[in-house]
Amino acid sequence: MQTYMGKKIDKIKSWGITKYMRELSIVMIGVFVTLWVTGIISDNSKQREVNRVMKLVQTELEDNLRSVEFSQHKWAAEQQVYRLIRQHIGRLEEIPLDTLEKYRKVIGDIHNLSVKSDSYEVLKSSLLTQYIDNKDFLRALSQTYGSLELVQDKLNRYTNLKTDGLNHTMSQVDQKTLDKWMNGDAHAFFKIPLDDNVFRAFVYSGGSLISAGDFETCKQELTSMIERITKRRY
């Protein structure tokens, strides 16, 4: 029985060495192309997964941007009335009643900011970051989430100080004063907590815990990062 090698030798003799080498080259090129295409498919699959996760991160950043904007709006309204109060401390009756009435609800506003970061954590814990060539982008993304956490911490400290002041006021007044605070006119509504040293200290110092600049810097970083992800500049 003729061996496999023998058949190959006979084939080479019948075809000639040139024709055989051409056939062998075609086979080798076919294998190479197959491996190359497989690599492309694999790379494309990885890139699609990167894009999918980055879309989730983009949505998360957009949600965080809306939360920051909402928190800043409430915080800014509160600072307006506190500036007005500081200008008329001890003379609240000089402030028009309707003006104070407009800001009445801000004392009870709670400004907790809950930053969303689940999608970013998925990105960090996966192996997908190795397929993102732009390492400057990854550093900027990390900085953006860091800015979010900074604003969250500052705003939560502000809210905690305010809550402490309100709780102290409520613990110091009798039921009659409490009823007047809740059901009286706007002058009484602001005057009663301002008579409490703890809450009055918050009105004077609370604004130093977070500034408009903190909000604006955070919003700029969020907007820039959302734009970069939208245009796939990563």
Tell me what you see in this structure.
This protein has 234 residues and is mainly α. It is 77% helix and 0% strand. It is built from nine helices and no strands. It has helices at residues 4-15, 17-87, 97-102, 118-125, 135-172, 175-183, 186-194, 197-205, 212-230. Helix 1 (4-15) crosses helix 2 (17-87), helix 5 packs antiparallel against helix 8 and helix 6 (175-183) packs across helix 7 (186-194). The longest helix has 71 residues, at 17-87.
Termini separation comes to: 63 Å
**Alpha plus pi helix count:** 9
Q: Helical content, roughly?
A: over 70%
What series of H and E elements makes up the topology?
HHHHHHHHH
Unreliable stretches = 22-26
Mean pLDDT, all residues = 85
Largest sheet: none
- The helix-and-strand class reads mainly alpha
Give the beta-strand count: 0
Alpha carbon gyration radius: 34 Å
SS strand fraction: under 5%
Mass-distribution shape: elongated
